[in-house]
Write a structure and sequence with these properties.
globular; 5 helices; single chain; 116 residues; mainly alpha
Length: 116
Amino acid sequence: MECDQDLDLASDIDKTFDKGEDSLSLFFLVNQSDLRVPIMTLMHFMSAEHKESVAEHVIQMRTELDKTGLGQRLMAYWRSKESEYNGKYRVIIVGALLMRTGAKIKESVGPLFPTE
C-alpha cells in the first residue's frame, strides 16, 4: 500500500468487518513505516516489539479468515461490486490484503486480477 487511494480503499474494505469487541481489523496489515513521521513513531515501527505484534496479528487474521470462510465471503462480496467505480481495483486490494495474511484464496471466486 503506497498511496492515499490504496489506503482509502483498504479503509473502505475494513468497514466490511463487524466492529464488535472481537472483530478483525485490517489496520495492522497496512504498515506505513515509510511515511515521514516523527522519529519516535518511526522507531516504534522499527522495533522488534512492533514487528512481533504485527506478526501475531497476521497469524490471528489468517486463522480466522480461513477457519470461518470469512476471507472467501469477503472476496465474493467485493467481487459482486466489481462493476462499481474502482470495483476491480478493490478486488485487487482485497486479494492483496488476503495474500498479506496468507489466507486461502480459492480459484472458484474467479481470477484475483481482473483482465478487463
